[in-house]
DNA sequence: AACCCGTGGTT
DNA sequence: TAACCAAGGGT
């Protein structure tokens, strides 16, 4: 029995060597003329390439640029990253999201100091051992910084290739990436692998986009089977996401006599792990615990009395809440939607002394790292007069 | 394999 | 507006 390779299994016919050569030339010529000027394209320093690739995970180029510039300016060497306190790193990352990315980078920087004598590893397998670096990022860094012929298959590349070859595999599945990597191993330019990978991504980001895709404007349209067959609207195939769940929180901005506000550090796992928010009480959990004498509608009086009692019992803190919410804020995550019913409150005695609680004065807000939902609450409260 | 993890921009 | 999307990785 003859063993079928990955491409044969998926009914993908690879181009001839001659066609592959023409494709490389066409794509790289287009890239040389049309590539975007990006700060991380001014260097081959693997550390800087690494930083950019981590920031670019699930994040748009325009968002990343200022973060990237500030990050490498503040921490110009891997050793700086390895030695930086977590608060410094989180402040540099504030607003970018997916905060485990920067925590993992610190872990990886320490790995590099320990296992690779402080020098970013060149071996692809070594790179993959670094925390937070997966198949895409390993391929990106080794191809761009070290000119290795490694595939770097991201969402752009899968979209471009699925249209070029009319591939109907579901690109939301992790296993699909391997098929596209095999295609890239055939196509990648051995002289300029990093540029080749980046060219495909630029093409996906600027021309071969998800929407507003006009294939006749593509520099490689003659290679595009879905264009020639007028089937491009079918690609890429992507399973729809499940709906986001909604959660409602009574959110308490508690102020003491020193005009400081009370924040609570979230658990080390889960959403916004280890970050500060005001005290947030999940409405559902609250009800389940038997605090249910209130009815909703526009009368918050009974809710407020219960919340005051709850804070006294759970946090050992006497507070006086305003009887009406200051506002209702919404924040959408990738998979959750928060509704925050924000109340202002005064601490009648400053005896909240739990480890996870922290009083912070408004004048220190810009020095603290706050996730965006907390920033929204802060902004709301900054506009109000308490009592 | 399926789900978790932020945020901002578009349609 | 709800849904979708963006240079993914960890568990």
UniProtKB/TrEMBL annotation:
Bilayer-crossing regions: none
GO biological process, one term: base-excision repair
Keyword DNA damage: yes
Cofactor note: Binds 1 [4Fe-4S] cluster.
Domain HhH-GPD: 55-206
The entry's keywords: 4Fe-4S, DNA damage, DNA repair, Glycosidase, Hydrolase, Iron, Iron-sulfur, Metal-binding
Documented EC number(s): 3.2.2.31
GO MF terms held by the record: 4 iron, 4 sulfur cluster binding; 8-oxo-7,8-dihydroguanine DNA N-glycosylase activity; adenine/guanine mispair binding; metal ion binding; oxidized purine DNA binding; purine-specific mismatch base pair DNA N-glycosylase activity
Pfam families, per the entry: HhH-GPD, NUDIX_4
Family of this protein: Belongs to the Nth/MutY family.
Protein name per its UniProtKB record: Adenine DNA glycosylase
Organism: Alkalibacterium kapii
Gene (name only): mutY
